[in-house]
Amino acid sequence: MAEKNEKTRKVRDYLEYGDMDFSVPHQPDRPVCTTAGELLDLLTADVVQAVDNLQEANETQQELLEDIMERNEEGLSLDEFLAKEYQDRESREYLVEGAILTCTNSKRDMRMIMDEVKGREYDWGHEELPTEKGPDSTKVYRKLVVTSDKGGSVDDKKYATIHDCVADENILGFGNCDREPDNPAEMEKLRRYHDKMDGIFVREEGTCLQLMKLEKEWENYIIDGEYQTFGDDNQSGITMTSMLFCKHGGFIYPVKSGQEPVIEGFEQFLVEPDVNNQEEIKRYMWYFFRNKGLSIECVSGILGNVATECEFNIKRATSNKNYWGFFQWDYKIRKKALETWAKENDLDINLVSVQCEYAYWEMTNSSFDIFLKSQNMRCSYETFLEAKTEEDAAIIFATFFERCYLGDHGIDENNQMYYEDIQGRIERTEGAVDIRTELEAEEKECFR
Question: Which range, of 56-65, 227-236, 314-323, averages the lowest pLDDT?
Fold first, then answer.
């Protein structure tokens, strides 16, 4: 359910001018009040409008929930259905810089607004309003601008938080608002802005930005688990199920997270997986390393090792007292190096994508080269790339990267270190074969 609903919303939350100090002159968004009577009239009208805004918020939310529930064919409760419905990968995507947004009240059409005080009509909007691509040709779509910048990013795009909600800074105008000005003060604001810009730019941008009054933070829907947070003050991220209410009567909502790749190919599958979903993690890792240019044999070998170490299960991956993560870094040296690397790059090591990125960095920057005596096989990143089968790739990866040795070790005739065998060799190779059988077929199906 949403954190705000008809039970938790209050009229005072939807006052459009109630939080302004009218003793301070020349506030840009404050209507001009020269007498106590004018101020009283404005505040009275504001309360009336707040009641209407509150009703609009509740009704809009209910319409959205009813629309969702129309897809409920199993007779589940709303909470049960939302939890089930939002298991898909797209709904859990966190919004990043460039996410595409629109508003329930957005309109692309030009419109004429009558100013009864001045006895004249004002043109707003333009036939060729600039807009991003979206599913509804009657709406305007704009990109989210992220300014909270709490350190998290994906593909060099900053994660948004609930505080990226400032009009004309984070949230740009969505063309014309379907609702007219609610009161004389709003009409006055439109008039002043129109005259100031002599009608040129306003015809292009519409009324939305001038009427926009946003809440102080986005609303997150509770789906499954807690939302990821960013920064020292733990600001919550926002996802494809988050919404931002405008006190002029509309909900701003995302239609694309901004994480969608520009280039078609493996990148289209690189959406941050749910850390508690083993199947999502397995598929993410497959396409992550395939996107790095590694062969099917190599990727199958990597995933065969991860499956043996922790079965793509985050609890198993982090419960070992000596080793941590999906790639089992030892606490004494390698995990500390991971933490240092992540801190320098403002990354969260708990993300699957970050662990994969560091594992790739580590394997490509390693000089580790040893001889596996039981297999008569030299193991390094170079020989890993040359593996002809997924079984060989699994063994080489386990040796030079996982370093999970079993039995005696020593120095060979060439003064190179060797090991007799590795732990779980059969499980690692069989796992690599099984994963290749499954995901190679899926990959071919996707790229037919």
Answer: 227-236
